[in-house]
Amino acid sequence: MSHGVRRARQSPQDIEARRLKEASKIQEYLDLYNNVMNKKTAKEWSQEAFDLTTQLLRANPELYTIWNYRRDTLTNGLFLSKTPEEINNILASDLQLTFAALRQHPKVYWIWNHRRWCLENTPNGPGTEENGEPGTPNDPVGWKRANWMKELAVCEKMLDADARNFHAWSYRRYVVASSPDSRPLASELAYTLKKIESNFSNYSAWHQRSKILSGLWESGEKTEQEVKDQELELVKQAFYTDPNDRSAWLYHRWLVGSGNDARILEREIAVIQELLDIEPDRCIEAIVHYKRLLIRHKPQDADKLKSDCAEGLRTLSRVDPQRRRRYEELEQSILGS
After folding, report:
1. Is this prediction's pTM over 0.85?
2. What are the distances in angstroms from CA 293 to CA 81, 132, 205, 232?
3. Whole-angstrom Cα distance, residue 93 to residue 300?
4. For labelling alongside 4, which of 11, 91, 307, 316 has CA 20 to 30 A away?
5. Measuring CA to CA, how many Å separate 304 from each of 25, 180, 244, 311, 335?
6. The dihedral sign for the CA sequence 228, 230, 233, 239
């Protein structure tokens, strides 16, 4: 009986038949694997070798050695006799192969890596004129543009399936940074907001947001001052929605940074103080951290701030005894400074 459904009873003959079938599949896989590895050892760069890697990677896309060998068969063999258009078609086919593999194995690094390689090795064309108009047959990077344009859609499909897939977020950053057609950072910021609002616990989306904001500040498109107040309000919503989630707290600490702005420190300490009754452990740790940063701005209140930090750390030692030694050392450091 399983989940209320009676299992059909199998005869010894059925069990043996299933065993033999499974054994046959395993042997077929091992024969294929050994055949490919023998060709790799012999440095065979033939079409047959390439086709065999396709079969093997469809069966097991986690074999990074076979992905490497597949690329070798292309660069050392097949590409040498192909036209740029034929090379582009092969790479477009490999992009389809990797997408199918990612849908079943979304966190296998080697698949994402091969996809990058395909994009980076797409040849120029179909146009040959340097000033050919984008989007026309005269576009000198038309093939590259077409392949790269699909990548954000691939990322979105993968993140719709798992919004916290670190590999997909990392690949999305790569695509935004490398695409021939630059994507406005503001659009990426809006995308991360959509993902965060659907799930405040999405650490990868918060991390992506921090990377985008850093880029906006460095480019001068936005100033830290105008952005931080809005971002801190967003984090406040996350705190009240799920005060126990670590993702928003880490982002909050990144926003506050080294505490150069006393105004922000005082305001955020007051905000967190309001949350103290809801999530004391996380709040106390944050309050201690920010009051410690505030000491250098308010030397006249140093004794009071240090005393508050010490009291908070003693409370944490009681409620979180496994890290008691850490809290004690931090208290000694604060009181001794």
Report:
1. no
2. 64, 56, 27, 17
3. 68
4. 11
5. 72, 56, 28, 11, 11
6. negative
Per-residue model confidence as pLDDT tens for the chain (337 residues): 445 556 667 777 777 777 777 888 899 999 999 999 999 999 999 999 999 999 999 999 999 999 999 999 999 999 999 999 999 999 999 999 999 999 999 999 999 999 999 999 999 988 776 666 666 677 888 999 889 989 999 999 999 999 999 999 999 999 998 998 888 888 999 999 999 999 999 999 999 999 999 988 988 888 888 899 999 999 999 998 888 889 999 999 999 999 999 999 999 999 999 888 776 767 899 999 999 999 999 999 999 999 999 999 999 999 999 999 999 999 999 998 7
Instruction: Look at residues 143, 48, 128 and name the one whose alpha carbon lies nearest to residue 87.
Output: 143
Question: Strand, helix or coil at 130?
Answer: coil
Q: CA-CA distance, 328 to 261, in Å (whole number)?
A: 28
Following DSSP, what letter does each residue of 147-197 receive, concatenated? HHHTHHHHHHHHHHH-TT-HHHHHHHHHHHHH-SS---HHHHHHHHHHHHH
According to DSSP, residue 56 is labeled: H
The length of the chain is 337
User: Mutual orientation of helices 109-120 and 84-104 as an angle, nearest 10°?
Assistant: 160
Nearest Cα to Cα of residue 289 among 325, 326, 322: 326
- 199: three-class secondary structure by DSSP: coil
117, 132, 15, 125: which is closest to 75 by C-alpha?
117
Residue 269 and residue 287 in contact, taking contact as beta carbons nearer than 8 Å: yes
Dist CA 23 CA 167 (whole Å): 34
- Say if CB 307 and CB 334 are below 8 A apart: no
